[in-house]
Amino acid sequence: MAQQRDRTGFPVWLYPNLLSLDAPVVAVVWQSFLAHCYLLSMRESGRVVLFLSVWWVYLADRLLDVRRPARALEPARHRFYRRYHKQAQWLLAAVSLLNLLLIIFWLRPAVFHNGLIALAGISVYFVLVHTRRSLLLPKELAAALLFTLGTFLVPWTIAAHPFEQLLRPAAVFLLLCFANLVAIETWEWRELRGGEPPRPHPFTVASSRFLPVWAPLLALACLLPGEAPFYRAVALSAVATALLFARGGRMSLEARRALVDGVLLSPLLFLL
Which domain holds residue 197? Predict the structure, then answer.
């Protein structure tokens, strides 16, 4: 990947990640694909509020991250938010206000009520992670659960039979998100923290060791005959994640960080 950089020193192609735009785009793509696969009638309000909500969570999370003392080696996103801390705070405030107005005046009440569950989960996550309290679950699994909850919230609310229709898709999507987060945490722990404490959760370490095995097995399970296109998209992303994790060592960490999120956009191959 070409290392074209702007005058700030960050690669131009890394800006979707630096601005925390990659996660909301991924969430909306999968939400739209879910509605397409299962013939769910989605309103634009659900997509816009999901985008803004996920963006808000990632902006807030990164601003909280950089309250801690800087390390000698840090991910590009942390360096970016330290440098542009004030601008990021203003952006967070603008996103908060816009999202609040849309939720009050545009979002369906049923979606709002279910969204309170997601808000409670995010609040607990922030308190535990950013006060350095111990988590029973790995941080990566907790984040994957919350991301899945947000992505599936509107489809789950409007589906006639959500458990029958969406429980299995939610489970495989959760595992895909977990693979993505395990890869990122493992790379950063090895290459930026030199394998030094704080170590990832033991379950995350074990999951990373066997990721090149269990992610392809997830893909294989998703390719059983008769499965919906949703599962084929999960399979494509899972295989790409496993390959990038196992064979991407020649790329820079920044390139792998961008690509491991990029391969989650496989639904576009089915929607275009």
Answer: 13-271
Residue 5 within any structural domain of the chain = no
Alpha-carbon distance 208 to 214, whole Å?
A: 10
Give the integer Cα–Cα distance in Å for 212 and 186.
13
Q: Is residue 7 in a domain? A: no
**Residues of the chain by 3-state class (helix, strand, coil), percent to 5:** 75, 0, 25
Domain total of the chain: 1
Paired residues of 5 in beta bridges: 11
Q: How many CB atoms are located within 10 Å of the residue 87 CB? A: 10
The angle at the Cα of 226, spanning 221 to 231, to the nearest 5 degrees, equals 45
Summarised one tens digit per residue, pLDDT across range 91-133 is 999 999 999 999 999 999 999 999 999 999 999 999 988 887 6
Q: Within a domain: residue 117?
A: yes
